[in-house]
Amino acid sequence: MNYGDLHYLLLLAFNRSNKAIVRQTAKGDLLPGQPKILEFLWEHPDCTQKEISLGCVLDKSTVTSLVTRMKQQNYLTKAPDPSDRRNYRLSLTEKGKEKAVEVRKVCAFVDKIAWQDIPPEEQKQFLKTFQKILLNLETLEATI
């Protein structure tokens, strides 16, 4: 593997960031995948499992098992969707909101470490470039 290959650097960055987040959130009794769902529900209250699946880039079956567990842990509620009885709307409970705040703090800390020694103007430029890369990859995904 080459540190000049974008796909490899993306893989390394995700892996290292995710490991740090999972390691810290596991101390709060969260399983891998649950922090993503908590953060997603914090930013997108009252959504469906399909929306979570797409937003968190998780398989439907993975979301189903994580949501079932999170409901048992009293992190979220699940109610029938009034516009489509085949779907359910998910929302954070008070306990879930508290966990989501903890997750956001962990993620902010990991981001802070990742950005250390990088000036704000370089951070802004990196994010602009990275967003362009994501759009390019979305276009590629649509054509394959």
TrEMBL record:
Pfam families documented for this protein: MarR
GO function terms (MF aspect): DNA binding; DNA-binding transcription factor activity
Descriptive protein name: DNA-binding transcriptional regulator, MarR family
InterPro entries recorded: HTH_MarR-typ, WH-like_DNA-bd_sf, WH_DNA-bd_sf
Domain HTH marR-type, chain residue ranges per copy: 3-135
Membrane-spanning segments: none
Classification via PROSITE patterns: HTH_MARR_2 (PS50995)
Alphabetized UniProt keyword annotations: DNA-binding, Transcription, Transcription regulation
Organism: Anaerotignum lactatifermentans DSM 14214
PANTHER family given in the database record: TRANSCRIPTIONAL REGULATOR, MARR, TRANSCRIPTIONAL REPRESSOR OF EMRAB OPERON
